[in-house]
Amino acid sequence: MHVNESAEDYLETILILSKRLPVVRSVDIANEMGFKKPSVSIAMKNLRQKEHITVDKSGFITLTASGREIAEMIYERHRMISSWLIRLGVPEQIALADACKIEHVISRESFEALKEHIK
User: Fold this and answer.
1) What are phi and psi of 24, to 5 degrees?
2) For 44-99, how does the pLDDT look when each residue is reduced to its tens digit (9 = 90+)?
3) At 55, which helix (H) or strand (E)?
4) Could you tell me the sign of the dihedral formed by the alpha carbons of 75, 104, 80, 65, in that order?
5) Packing angle of the helix pair 65-87, 92-105 (nearest 10 deg)
6) Which end of the chain is least crowded, N or C, by CB within 10 Å?
7) Please, which residues have CB within 8 angstroms of residue 40's CB and are 6 or more apart in sequence?
């Protein structure tokens, strides 16, 4: 189940916001990601068409099972890679930025091997 990097970022953001907020709306995503509302609306339409999210009548966004699976995979990668880089002495801001890039391109096999090594 592969989606593009942008979709992964949106799904991860929805997951993170859903842990912090009672409901997630497009405006919350726009504010969190620093994007304009029309860009977020287009992305939400695409995610809805791919059945990774649902949007109710009030505009509340919820991850579907497939959307949650992708979001949790990306979020786990982000947390693990960034914390690993920080432990290696990389400054936090650089580690977070690099983790954002690496989380999208690393294969499942390489990530699992890294995870085992870190444990």
Assistant:
1) -115, 130
2) 999 999 999 999 999 999 999 999 999 999 999 999 999 999 999 999 999 999 99
3) strand 53-55
4) positive
5) 140
6) C
7) 10, 26, 27, 29, 30, 33
